[in-house]
Specification:
Elements: E1 5-14, E2 23-28, E3 55-58, E4 61-66, E5 69-75, E6 77-84, E7 92-98, E8 104-109, E9 120-127, H1 132-141, E10 146-151, E11 176-178, E12 181-191, E13 195-200, H2 222-231, E14 235-238, H3 256-262, E15 268-271, H4 279-291, E16 298-300, E17 315-319, H5 328-336, E18 340-343, E19 347-352, E20 360-362, E21 368-377, E22 384-389, E23 392-398, E24 405-414, E25 418-430, E26 433-442, E27 445-448, H6 458-477, H7 484-505
Parallel strand pairs: 1-8, 9-10, 10-12, 14-15, 15-16, 20-27
Antiparallel strand pairs: 1-5, 2-4, 2-6, 3-4, 6-7, 9-17, 11-12, 12-13, 13-14, 17-18, 18-26, 19-21, 21-24, 22-23, 22-25, 25-26, 25-27
Length: 506
């Protein structure tokens, strides 16, 4: 690395407005040496919970989050600038020659599509350890409208628990905001066996934050948390649905959120990123829930808890009603209504007879044909665009001359009520998730037919009954309930869910 450095004022502007705009920035010389802005580090912590915010390491590449302007000590000569600002902006790689003594460097980013004009606003439903100020900077740089920082009781990596972000709790109000971007701080409530819930938009903290850790008793149910959250007008998200309840084996049970969801106590099903599996693995349980007649929208989060995860790497787009401006409450209610799609890059829309995700399409008779339109656009190429109906894929298309865009317009015969959704995917890796393939999925549009109930997949019902029976066995044999009254209350949750699943199967 050259020792002859001089401080250069860097400005990145939005080409549409000409104003400085926050971005994720990487400046390097021809040898690949990284030059951080003043106030950022070339080498920084990347461990879980370690000084999270402002810096990012993806693979071997370091980045800095800036608010649109910064000062950077740079050498004279060739400089390579990489600029990123979420999936609606074109990634920029700019090669420039920095003359000796040059004191300014002007760069720009360009938006190639604007989903906000159509009422779609992207958000991250769960991240941890970020201060509201760091979360707001990274939200603006990654073009996220809403970021949910979740405080939780941290039992990992230390003999002394900690509760990061609890003093930042903001509930139903943004903790910090700037035009077009909000950061709200709520809670992530956990049990090591029963599972985890994100409790968003509550007007005060739902305690206890944890149950069952260490020597503590199992004297609480996740359904208790759901009830408190809903009484406070909050939104309950089943978080880490795949891998927190299954830490070592695919044969571990799904936990209590399955029962709570069947009982109507959970509002959304979260897909986050995990290096060990593709997104479709996480979706297998969600598909089976839909096949049991359970209605639940998809949400997605980065689960960011270190400087090696990009905020919004997996994100939720929620559609607000026409004419309604962006508010935190409005975004939460759009999620609750199921007007969502999730993505790690592609932008995906689904329309059926003028209806979108979360809507209910009422057919006049048991047999009919609906016109479906699906469109996907992506900065990363994908190969397949699909429409799913009840049991699986009913229509699919491959991309044509343009591997980054596809439109599917088809008529789909409907013989029974149920649901339809769309997804796109491909073999290309996404930049901000070097181990993950390009992917997006909508929440369902539900179809009703007079006099019909949704078809129920018997195999899915039996699988979930088995999951519930295993949890009932855990309650009877292993739960550390302080009294038999507590044990009975916990068992009642699973017993009620079992009865509801059996009712649906009739």
């Amino acid at each position: 690395m050259s020792a002859a450095l001089h401080t250069v004022h860097v400005r990145v502007h939005d080409s549409a407005t000409g104003q400085p705009t926050p971005v994720r920035l990487r400046l390097t010389d021809p040898a690949g040496n990284y030059y951080p802005p003043l106030g950022r580090l070339a080498q920084f912590a990347t461990g879980r919970g370690q000084d999270v915010g402002g810096n990012l390491l993806l693979g071997a590449k370091q980045y800095a989050y800036i608010d649109g302007t910064c000062e950077v000590p740079l050498p004279a000569g060739p400089i390579r600038a990489e600029l990123w600002k979420g999936p609606e902006y074109r990634p920029q790689t700019i090669e420039t020659e920095l003359a000796a003594g040059k004191l300014a460097l002007r760069l720009s980013v360009e938006r190639w599509t604007n989903l906000r004009e159509q009422g779609w606003y992207s958000g991250d439903t769960r991240c941890h350890y970020l201060s509201p100020a760091a979360a707001l900077l990274e939200a603006a740089a990654e073009d996220l409208a809403v970021v949910n920082v979740l405080a939780f009781e941290d039992h990992f990596g230390s003999t002394v628990p900690a509760i990061p972000n609890i003093l930042d709790f903001s509930g139903q109000r943004p903790a910090l905001e700037m035009p077009g971007h909000f950061v709200a701080v709520n809670t992530h409530n956990t049990h090591p066996v029963l599972g985890s819930l994100g409790l968003l938009n509550t007007h005060r903290i739902v305690y206890p934050l944890t149950v069952g850790w260490g020597d503590s008793a199992d004297d609480w149910t996740l359904r208790d948390w759901c009830g408190q959250c809903h009484r406070k007008a909050g939104l309950v998200v089943w978080t880490r649905a795949w891998h927190e309840a299954r830490p070592w084996s695919l044969f571990e049970p799904l936990g209590e959120p399955l029962a709570d969801l069947v009982l109507g106590e959970v509002d959304a099903y979260e897909i986050d990123y995990d290096d060990r599996r593709p997104c479709f693995s996480s979706l297998a349980d969600w598909y089976d829930l839909l096949r049991c007649g359970v209605r639940v929208p998809l949400v997605s989060s980065s689960g960011k808890d270190s400087n090696s995860v990009a905020l919004g790497a997996m994100r939720t787009y929620a559609r607000l009603p026409p004419g309604e401006g962006l508010t935190y409450k409005g975004w939460i209610e759009a999620v609750r209504a199921g007007r969502t799609f999730i993505t790690n890059g592609p932008l995906l829309t689904l329309s059926i007879e003028g209806h979108g995700p979360g809507d209910v399409l009422a057919l006049p008779s048991e047999r009919g044909v609906v016109r479906v339109r699906v469109e996907a656009k992506s900065a990363v190429p994908f190969e397949r665009l699909e429409v799913l109906h009840n049991r699986g894929c009913c229509v699919e298309a491959r991309t044509g001359d343009d591997p980054s865009a596809a439109v599917l317009e088809v008529e789909v015969p409907i013989e029974s009520c149920g649901w339809l959704a769309a997804r796109c995917h491909g073999s290309h890796l996404v930049h901000h998730r070097p181990e993950q393939r390009v992917f997006a999925h909508t929440s369902p549009i539900y179809v009703t037919v007079p006099g019909q109930k949704p078809p129920v997949d018997t195999a899915a019902v039996q699988r979930f009954l088995g999951e519930i029976d295993r949890m009932l066995d855990w309650v009877a044999r292993e739960a550390r309930c302080p009294t038999e009254k507590h044990r009975a209350a916990l068992a009642d949750v699973f017993t009620a869910a079992r009865a509801e699943l059996q009712r649906r199967a009739v």
